[in-house]
Design goal:
Elements (H helix, E strand, L loop, with lengths): L3 H27 L9 H17 L17 H5 L24 E3 L3 E5 L6 E6 L12 E2 L5 E7 L5 H4 L5 E4 L4 E7 L2 E10 L4 E10 L5 E14 L2 E2 L9 E2 L2 E6 L2 E6 H6 L8 E12 L3 E7 L3 E10 L5 E15 L4 E12 L2 H7 L13 H18 L2 H24 L1
Antiparallel strand pairs: 1-2, 2-3, 3-4, 5-10, 6-7, 7-8, 8-9, 9-19, 10-18, 11-12, 13-14, 13-15, 15-16, 15-17, 16-19, 17-18
Helix pairs in contact: 7-8
Length: 408
C-alpha cells in the first residue's frame, strides 16, 4: 500500500505533467515549427472577397489577368494603370514603370510593388513554405497593403485609392510621389532583403506660396483576415486570430483585430505624444512592423469590417508635427520596417524592442528566462533537444535539496 507521502508525490507529478502539456499546447498555438507556415487557403479566400469589394466600387480593371495561384502577379498588379484617369492632367510626370522595376529581390525576401493601391503587392519570404499549397515561399502581403505619406492624421485611404502613383526607381530605392494639398509627398522605400528589413522615408515639400505648419504622417492600410488556421497537424482546427501589437512608453500590448473591428464600442489604439517603439500586425508565425526613427509620435487607428465580411480594413496613421515649412522647403519622417518570421534571434538582431512581440502568455515571467537559457545552450550544442536536457538536469540539481527534504 502507498503511504500518504507517495500519493502526494504522484499527484504532484501528475499536476506538473498536465501543466507542462497544457503550456506546450498553448505555445505551439502561438508559435510555429522552424519551417514556418501560412494559411494560403484563407488568404486566397479573403483576397477574392477583397477583389469583389473593389470591383463593386469600380476600382479593379475587369480584364486584369490572374496568376492563377491566388496571388496577383507583378504585371497584373500594374496593369490598368498604364493610362490612369486624370494622369494626363496631373502636375506630376506620370508614366508606367516596367514590371521588373517594381521588384526588389534578395537572398531572404522579395518585395513586389505597384503604381496603384495597394502599392505593396507581395512580400515573399524565401526560406519558409506553405504546407497547404506546397509552395516554397510565404507571401506576407497576400492581399496587398499600402504605406504612403499624407498630410494630417485623417482617414484618406479611399481618396488615395482613386489616384495613380508616380514612381521612380533607383538601384536601391523606389520613390512614390503624389500631391496632397499644397504639398508634394515623396515616399522612398529602400528594402534590405538580406535581413527582412526596409527603410521608409516620407518627404513633404511645400509647393505653395506661403509658410504653413505641417503635421506629416504615414498611413498603413491593410485588409486583414479575422482568422487563420494553425497549419499544424498536431493543432488541426485550431483558429488563430491576427492581432495589432505595439509598444508604447515601454509597455507592449496585443489587440485582437476581430474583437475591436467588429465592435464599434471597442477602443482603437489612439495616442498623442507617446514613445512608440514599434507598431505591427502579429500573425503568430510572422510579423509586419514599423518602427519610427523619431520615437515621439501620435497614433490614430481606423477600422471597418469589409463589406463582404471575413476581415477588417485596418488603417494605422503615425503622425508628428514637423513645424513651419516655408515655400520650397521640406520636412520628413522616417521608419524602419520589419517583414519576417518571429524568431527571437532575428527580431533582436533587427531591433531589440521587437523581442517584446514574442508573447509567452501568463507564464511570461518564467518562460522568458528559461527560453533565453535554452537559446544559450542551443548556441553551444546546436540541438534544441540536447539544450532542453541540459536545462532539465540543471533544474534537477538546483531543486534536489528541496526534493530530498520533501522525501525524508
Amino acid at each position: 500500500m502507498m503511504d500518504e507521502k507517495q500519493k502526494n508525490n504522484i499527484i504532484g507529478v501528475a499536476i506538473m505533467v498536465a501543466i507542462f502539456l497544457g503550456y506546450s499546447y498553448y505555445m505551439q498555438v502561438k508559435y510555429p515549427p522552424p519551417s514556418g507556415v501560412q494559411n494560403t487557403e484563407q488568404s486566397s479566400d479573403l483576397g477574392a472577397l477583397q477583389q469583389k469589394e473593389a470591383a463593386d466600387q469600380g476600382q479593379l480593371n475587369p480584364k486584369t489577368p490572374s496568376s492563377g495561384s491566388g496571388e496577383p502577379s507583378e504585371a497584373s498588379m500594374n496593369e490598368g494603370v498604364s493610362v490612369p484617369k486624370g494622369a494626363e492632367n496631373s502636375a506630376l510626370n506620370w508614366q508606367a514603370l516596367p514590371a521588373e522595376s517594381l521588384v526588389f529581390q534578395g537572398k531572404l525576401s522579395e518585395f513586389s510593388l505597384s503604381q496603384k493601391t495597394p502599392n505593396f503587392s507581395k512580400v515573399i519570404l524565401n526560406d519558409y513554405f506553405s504546407e497547404k499549397e506546397q509552395q516554397n515561399h510565404v507571401n506576407l502581403a497576400f492581399n496587398g497593403f499600402t504605406i504612403l505619406g499624407q498630410v494630417g492624421d485623417g482617414f484618406l485611404y479611399e481618396e488615395i485609392q482613386t489616384k495613380p502613383l508616380v514612381a521612380e526607381r533607383s538601384d536601391a530605392s523606389l520613390i512614390f510621389s503624389h500631391l496632397d494639398g499644397m504639398y508634394k509627398v515623396d515616399d522612398a522605400f529602400t528594402p534590405n532583403n538580406d535581413n527582412y528589413g526596409a527603410r521608409f522615408t516620407s518627404t513633404f515639400t511645400n509647393q505653395g506660396e506661403v509658410s504653413a505648419d505641417l503635421v506629416g504622417a504615414v498611413a498603413w492600410t491593410v485588409d486583414v483576415p479575422y482568422t487563420t488556421s494553425s497549419g499544424s497537424s498536431f493543432l488541426t482546427g485550431v483558429v488563430l486570430h491576427p492581432r495589432i501589437t505595439y509598444r508604447v512608453n515601454e509597455k507592449t500590448k496585443f489587440i485582437d483585430i476581430e474583437e475591436v473591428c467588429a465592435d464599434a464600442q471597442e477602443e482603437r489604439p489612439t495616442f498623442k505624444g507617446v514613445q512608440l517603439d514599434f507598431l505591427g500586425i502579429d500573425e503568430h508565425y510572422f510579423l509586419r512592423s514599423l518602427m519610427p526613427k523619431n520615437k515621439t509620435v501620435n497614433l490614430t487607428t481606423y477600422m471597418k469590417p469589409l463589406a463582404t465580411g471575413g476581415g477588417c480594413r485596418l488603417t494605422m496613421v503615425i503622425s508628428q508635427a514637423l513645424g513651419v515649412i516655408k515655400p520650397g522647403a521640406s520636412g520628413s519622417i522616417e521608419f524602419d520596417g520589419y517583414f519576417g518570421p518571429k524568431s527571437s534571434e532575428i527580431l533582436t538582431a533587427h531591433d531589440k524592442n521587437l523581442y517584446h512581440t514574442l508573447d509567452m502568455g501568463i507564464f511570461d515571467f518564467i518562460a522568458q528566462p528559461l527560453y533565453r537559457v535554452i537559446i544559450y545552450f542551443y548556441g553551444l550544442v546546436g540541438n534544441y533537444g540536447i539544450a532542453i536536457i541540459i536545462l532539465t538536469m540543471i533544474l534537477k540539481i538546483l531543486f534536489y535539496p528541496l526534493q530530498r527534504q520533501a522525501t525524508f
